Amino acid sequence: MSNITVQQISIVQPIKAVGKNFTGDYRQSFAYIKEVQTLLDALSVKWIPNKVLGIYYDHPAEKKAEDLQSFQGVFTENEQVIPTGALSTIELAGSFLYTIVSGDPTQTIGEGYAALFEYVGRHAIKLKSNAGIQIVTLENGMAQTEIYLEL
To answer: Do 94 and 130 contact (CB within 8 A), yes or no?
Structure first.
């Protein structure tokens, strides 16, 4: 783990994303995101490219890949209202443990979670849930992943 900073933060102005719940392998997250983007395109709703949100409810070592639950979403321009039941809006607000990692997500996300859970153990913190919330932004070919655990 390369010098990853963990902070306790409070989100007052909610972070809003539009998406839907999925059941299946977390490795299919980008296909799930593409499905959300296609639904928004059909509704003529503009979404922000290169920025996505995923909430991962299950630990992949504890469930079969096809049974894993997640919410996959995108951010819309000007927080547009979505006129469909196929998609829902999620808002993140409250207290969280937070870290940000940069680089190849297949390596850095695991390092980020390791730093968060080490912090939880060291400070005897009680999490509201074990769901991991990730916001990934791609800029200039580099992935930045923000990871949140709700307190």
So the answer is: no
